[in-house]
Design a protein that fits this description.
mainly beta, 22-stranded antiparallel barrel, five-stranded mixed β-sheet, 47% strand, globular
Amino acid sequence: MDHATTLRRLLVAGASAAALAAAAAPAAAQPGSGNVIEELVVTAQKREEALQDVPIAVSAFNQETLERARIEGGPNLVLAVPNVQFSKGNFTGYNFQIRGIGSKLVAASGDAGTGIHLNNAPLIANNLFETEFYDMERVEVLRGPQGTLYGRNATGGVVNLITAKPTDSFEAAARAEYGNYNSVKLRGMVNMPLGDMLALRVAGNYLKRDGYGENIATGNDADDRDLWGARATLSFTPSERFRTWLLFDHFEEDDNRSRIGKQFCTKDPGPANIGGLGYSAIPPVGQIQRGLFSQGCLPTSLYDPSALGTVNSQATLGGLFGALGGFQTGDAYAGKMQTPDVRDIESLFDPIYKSKTDIYEFNAEFDVTENVTMNWLSAYTYYKLYTRQDYNRYLPSTTFNTTPNPVNAFAAVPGYAAIYASLFPGGVINDPQNGARNRFTTSDISSGYTEQWSHEVRFQSNFEGPFNYNVGAMITKYKSTGDYYVMFNTGTGYYQINNLLQTGNPNCVGPAPCVSVDPSADPTRVGHNYYDSYGPYRLLSYAAFGELYWNMTENFKWTLGLRYTVDDKRVTAHSVALGVPGRGPVPVGLQEVKFKEPTGRIGFDWQPDLGFTDDTLVYAFYTRGYKGGGLNPPFSPGIGVVPVPETFEPEFINAYEIGTKNTLLGGSLVLNLTGFYYDYKGYQVSKIINRTSINENIDAKVMGLEFESIWQPIEGLRLNAQIGWLDTEIKNGSSIDTFNRTQGAPGLTLVKSSTASNCVVSTAAAQTALAISNGQVPGFTPNPFNLLGVCTLASAAGAGTNIGGTGAIAAGTNAFGGLVSEGVPVDLDGNELPNSPHWTVSLGAQYTMNLGDWQATLRGDYYRQTKTFARIYNSEADRIRSWENVNLTFTVEQPDSGLEVGAFVKNATDETAITDFYLTDDSSGLFRNVFYTEPRTYGVFVAKRW
């Protein structure tokens, strides 16, 4: 039986059931009826094939489907594809996760686990979470490792965005939409033939809306949108054998988008005493001491009412500088709770978000012979991003001291009170980056600039005989630079004092002993008064690949694929120069790592004639996937108890998958099933230690099932279901949870270091240090800053000792004679991978009725995912609750005139769902930046096609 021919009478609008169900026209169950929808052809294997013929778990959506199902951009794909997760990330990135595999690492040289492609060209830096889909031929989501044709960083799968190409007839379309939050969306397209050989297609998209929340400090909207995109594609077909197109795609955004959602923190005031030993009876001393035994935020549930508290600033680096300089007495956020509306922020200034991307692509196809085609695809991408926002997103409850706290690091300097008053009149610190403020003020900037070239050449056969092939080679050159700045005025004030004492100029810019204070409002890397993570990165990746296809019989085909990839990664590393005398970046040197790995797949697909189905495809494959390792950023000088490796290892997946795609009941039912098992080696995951992202590797196993179905029992009615079941399990490994370093072990105490990072010592050792700090040991006077030496190693004596049998392994001994450890390792064996819910369920129903020459369609979609964890530790603090989503649309259209009007509701139940969070490091107080789904939106639209 000709499987593709049968599909032409099947009403297929997309590869997944959701795509099928969302198609615009009503369905007919039997061949020969009057409203048959043309099947969707996909290029999941880089050749055109009928969707149900592809032996890969793939979901695909054309533009009409995207609009009906309200799949407006990358984040919405989670609602329509089984076992998919999506969440924004902390540094303007995102995590698109398929079957538990995505990107939970933070590193300039790290790769995503899901490859994002535009017209089959890879996009390393992209706008998937920002831009909206418009004038698309289709969006394909390939689930599972794509180690042959797509290669590197496709261990989870691939999202391939296929734009609509020029045609040989005039076409045009326009769509206007208005919704709540004063949302205005405009889309348009014009397709123009230019003679016999040329055609031009131009499309655009515009979105502007008010914010979902309010900045209650400024009174302005928070998290608004103002973005647009445009695309032009020129096709040139000089002959039947030679076909080309040239594409330019532009995206631009300039608004107040919030990079993160709410900041969660259950304040940690610090223990009331240390093993029964109290703090100093001198109030200013005791107050600072207690703050140095706080970690800032406690590891409580995200859903605990206390989680909308504020960080204990005394446990942060900025708070430490505030104490050292005498600027701040106690916690800057004492007694403060955040507003319960998770959409609202309280920032000194509105967030700034600017993004711009230009993409150029050229594709040429040449029929070398009647049965062999050469394809050349070249792409260039320029990406620019600048974002700036308040670091803590809530204002302090107290002001700086107008006269310095008498307990400070400069108390012994003659006339310090007068120096303080002259530098900081009224307690105002004049910080060039944060302005003149008399309150604790911290902001950050995340910026990036990238360029990427890629070239791919393939030869693809289409012989009549049993053997065919698809072979090629590709090269990708990628370079990026950018900075992540954290700017805090207490640090600037502290260095201004030092500079005045050392050089006579508080705002000096120059060599040591000056700690340069950058005079620019936007930092320029010249200053050492702020944190700057800076390390230009270059990637050179090249590969040769190919697949051989053998039709053993008319309905049984073997596939053998192989790819060999070389990834050469280089980082021009720079040390974090915060507080280091001098100016400008401090180079560490060139870091380089190279990986050479084979990947591929082998398997079969079989189209048996079963009798009880119209068409059936059965397939089984073994696939090996690979994602390159990378380079860890360098530590800040003098920080760290445990040595950090320079590199982290690659990921490897041995994937076993079996599936079947079936058409039944005369074409009225599509039923697809997939089962998979992954042996996952070297899963990459990050944690932030001492203001640096450290990436670790662990092993895991993943298994799951996927069910996709569309059923049209009667004309006009469609029902669809996509159900994913996923089971993930970490197989081995241990890791220290920076959010809970002691793991509740009795006899251990957490202490701040001189750089506001945390370490663990025995409670007895902490008591010894506290007694010295209290002045209770002969030869010492009360001084809270003596505690800052607890985490500093004086010798390697005792290294490797299990402190008190708690599991905390000592790295050495401090000056007080106490053993120092990073913490108690957590046994990860049996834990789930992050963001991997056991169940994802999508259900949909659509009914279309004829009203004369008009058609009315009502559609509803329901989605649910079960609970999951945000981190590998699977603690209660990591748990993310299950959540649901309901979308509704109603459209009325007149097919003959191309006119359509409608209304919609997204997230009809106004669910406030957490999708993920990012845990900061010790020196920031271990708060969690939380990411949410969008609130309920609704509106009306009108569209016209010509």
